[in-house]
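Hello again,

I reread your note about wanting to compare the complex against the isolated chains. To keep things tidy I'm splitting this into two emails, and this first one only covers the full assembly. Below are the input lines as submitted, including protein chains and any nucleic acid or small-molecule components. They are followed by the predicted structure of everything together. The single-chain runs will come separately.
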Amino acid sequence: MGKNTQNVKDPEIGNVDDKGDGGASGAETSQAEKGESPPSLSRVFQIIKPEGKVLLVGFILLFAAEATTQVIPLIVAKAYNAIIDFTMDPDERMSDVHYYMLVSIIIFLSGSVATFIRFSIFAVAAERCVARLRIQLYGSILNQDIAFFDVHKSGELISRLGSDTTLLQGVVSQSIPESLGNIVKAIVSVILTFYISPELAGVSLGIIIVIVLMASPLGISLGKLSKLYQDALGEAQTHSTEAIGQMRTVQSFTAEMKEKKRFSDNIGDPAMYPLWFPKSKEGKAKSTLIVGFWKSIYSAGFFSIIFGGGFGFLYGCLWYGFHLVNKGDITLGDLTAFQAYVFNIGLGLGTASTNVVKVIEAFGACGRIFFLLDAIPSIPTPPKKGEEPKTLLKPGKFEGHLKFDNVKFAYPSRPNIDVLDGVSLSISPGTTTALVGGSGSGKSTVVALLQRFYDINSGSIKIDGNDIKDVDIQWLRQKIGYVQQEPQLFGLSVRDNLLYGLPDEKVISQEVMEQACRDANCHDFISSWPDGYETLVGERGVQVSGGQKQRISIARALITDCRLLLLDEATSALDAESEHLVQEAIDNAVVGRTVVIVAHRLSTIQRATQIVVMNKHKVVDVGTHDYLLENCLKYRELIKRQNMVSSGSTTALKELDS
Ligand SMILES: Nc1ncnc2c1ncn2[C@@H]1O[C@H](COP(=O)(O)OP(=O)(O)OP(=O)(O)O)[C@@H](O)[C@H]1O
Ligand SMILES: [Mg+2]
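Full-complex prediction:
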């Protein structure tokens, strides 16, 4: 999935033919599975189209500047010819030289001004393109359904948003204009060499074609290697982002060395490989070091052919040129101009090819970007081909009738394992339903399905009599307050976290916010902090305790004034005092709402209107605490095994214990 499994199967990196994901089977080998769409030039043009007009001005300036400045050597040639023209007196000769050199300098300065303007145009246009692209890309990522995030790691997505788009920026701002500018320079120079001496130019052109033909396979291979390099770097980044995000787990398991090794496997530790020809010993054939080794060798070969061939060609042509001067076919001035043009051709081709390599490299990155831009989330259900999108329901009121009818569900990432196997349950408005059951029985899954994080495989989920698939997803989620099993806060202030669920335009008073916090039992500790509600909670809320995080999350849900509250009680043990405080928060939160709570504590379970007992992906019984204690063996076992007995447990439970 994604790029973490791609491009690592080619055993021999020296062979840069990029076909090789050969190990995977069937549909898994498709580009979509690799997280790439086929890159196409027309798509790249679509990205830069909004800057089309200004880029056109840039291109006109580029062509004008490159073409006109190529005339300079011809004018300078006239100055050379004038200075050795002994039919004129010295003053006349110098006055001609002054004239030609002045014209040359004026043309050169005008060219420089045009270059400054076009350079700025391309750079600014590229900034605009990449900013637009990043926003689009981020928007597209945010729109994906939860199943997408089950398989695409955050590091991988971050690397697409960051380094892949940066590659594209470099291409628009530099590589494309530089390649085109240098190609124009080379073409104009070739034409002018024909003007000076068709014979000499013919020889030169022949040599240029040979050089280009020799270098182009290397250039193409370099493009492929650059893409592999990006992939390897992306993979390293994916793992390191994950580890850095979970530093506490890494350090508490003293897994620093393990993480370092995983990273250095992807990067390729130079200490493990010889300086020359690093052949993979341990399977990690596509580390950045190994790909980088071949990339360096191919680059060296490519540029040696282009520049070495280019300059060798220059001296060869000059040699032949002296022969023509000697014969009287061209003047010495012509030969100096010719020399300048041949130099321009060599340099132009060299620079153009460097940039073409970058364009090819970015083209590969585009495939990954397009994949994300094109990814169509399956929730809300996309319209079928040729069909109009369905108008989704936004009922005026959310009553709170919830119904699961014979729901079967498997997570898209594990399609063969039924996590819910024919689950039916019915919830009435204003009631509290507790979901209980062993770990992995599917409780959190029920909560996820109520928010339509996933679509079910069969059966139906109804919200106030409407199928969940017919209801507007934004409308639905706005009615829901959700407190996760492992609540997450953002690295913002407490206030910003509390207001996270409100639309930007909605303002609530400090009193309303504080009341929600009192209800959630978090006002006291927040206001005891020196910065109160402005206290920063650290990345993902690391600077607050587990119990505090839970209560802030409950307050965050209450502030949205949700009609349906989904509470996934944390399984992590809280001390008696925090447990009591969280319990009070829950008691306050359930008043006047429909509540579904995944409950692990007896106190929570006892208070519920109905309790749904889940076991092995099915609902085994539904009822009140007392009813279930009497009639449901599974429930009795659960209560006993999970040690949820509190001091106020019922007589039935005591009987069970005895
Ligand atoms: N995103 C996911 N992708 C694939 N499988 C998943 C995913 N989330 C959960 N599962 C699997 O689905 C099953 C039910 O998980 P679920 O989280 O609903 O259990 P639970 O009843 O909430 O358990 P717990 O009490 O431990 O929180 C488990 O076997 C779990 O491994
Ligand atoms: Mg759970």
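For quick reference: The first strand starts at residue 402 and ends at 410.

B.
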